[in-house]
Amino acid sequence: MNSSFNLYLYKSKVFLTNNLKILVISFLVLIFSINTSNLILEIFFSESINNFKTKPISKNNLKISENPFKQNYEIFSNDSSLQSIKAPETSLSLKLFGVTSSANQNFAIIGLNSGDQKKYTEGESILDNVFLELIHKDYVTINRLGSSESLSFDSINLIGGIDENILTKSEKAIKNSIISSNWLSEQDISDLISFVPIFVDGVLSGLELNPGSDKKFFETFDLKPGDVLVSINGTKVSEFNQDFSSDINSLFLESKNIDLELLRNESKFNIGIDLN
User: Fold this and answer.
1) Which element (helix H / strand E) includes 21?
2) Per-residue pLDDT tens listing for the chain (276 residues)
3) How many CB atoms lie within 10 A of CB 41?
4) 261: how many CB neighbours lie within 10 A of its CB?
5) At 254, which CATH number?
6) How many Å apart are CA 33 and CA 140, to the nearest integer?
7) Residue 146 sits in the same domain as residue 230
8) Rounded-to-integer distance, Cα 245 and Cα 192, Å
9) Is 226 within 8 Å of 206 (Cβ atoms)?
10) What does the alpha-carbon distance between residue 27 and residue 22 come to, in Å, rounded to a whole number?
11) What is the value of pTM for the model shown?
12) Among 156, 174, 179, 198, which is disulfide-ready with 163 (CB 3.0 to 4.6 Å)?
């Protein structure tokens, strides 16, 4: 019986030993599996994170080059089609009497009243802290303490800022003068009189007269620098071609009598020239 019990103990011991070994091996396998899994997961997520960080982010080719809160005329100031947008009208008591354009120089005629008209070129000072900034075909831009303001023609403005009703009431005639048609035909009118075009609302409306190289001719007809020629023999200056000098030469050389309609300050007057 003792031998049987001993045999039973021996078998039990072997069974427990084997089971323990299996348990230990299983535990080790489990630990190894967990570590291996963690290592694999760590490697996988590490590569994914690196790929996410290093992958360039696609961008749209959109570029904001201007402040979106600016006004339209500020954003598109480089667009020539919008450069003529007017600044606010000035509150100054200045008046625009005319704008002129010539091959050599553009200038505007500005003053506080009709007796205070002066010529100004771009950049010239008009009043303290006020200068002429830009000349347009039908208005000018002035700069007042760093801010741009517009100075436009009055609604009743004609040449020189004179209302038509005023002109008809103040018309006066000057005695006709006589000159030789042969002598005149040998002259270049532009040498006798200097013509500077005046534009009102973008239209050629008059020619400012100044002495040419022969000042005696200018003085003979009682002309004064700054007089504005409105028409010749009833043909308005506004009807002349762009090359108005050819029209003037034709009228002077082909007519027997010349009637000049002019403006001086607030008065319209006529000068008659008889050719013999």
Assistant:
1) helix 2-54
2) 556 656 655 666 666 676 677 777 777 777 777 767 666 767 666 655 555 554 454 444 434 333 333 333 333 334 444 345 778 988 888 888 788 755 566 888 888 776 677 889 999 999 888 999 998 877 899 999 899 999 987 643 334 443 444 334 334 444 444 455 555 555 666 667 777 888 776 777 788 888 877 677 777 777 888 888 888 877 888 777 666 666 777 766 666 677 788 888 768 888 877 666
3) 10
4) 21
5) 2.30.42.10
6) 88
7) no
8) 12
9) no
10) 8
11) 0.39
12) 156
* Token output for 14: 């072997």
Residue type, 144: R
How many angstroms separate the CA atoms of 153 and 96, rounded?
A: 5
59: tokens are 């961008």
Domain membership flag for residue 201: yes
Q: How far apart (Å, rounded) are the C-alpha atoms in residues 93 and 142?
A: 13
Which amino acid would we find at residue 32? F
**Burial (CB count within 10 angstroms: exposed 0-12, middle 13-18, buried 19+), residue 149:** buried
Domain of residue 217, residue span: 162-275
Return the closest-CA partner of residue 148 out of 160, 132, 137, 163.
132
On whether residue 147 sits in a domain, the answer given is: yes
Q: Is the dihedral of CA 235, 120, 113, 155 positive or negative?
A: positive
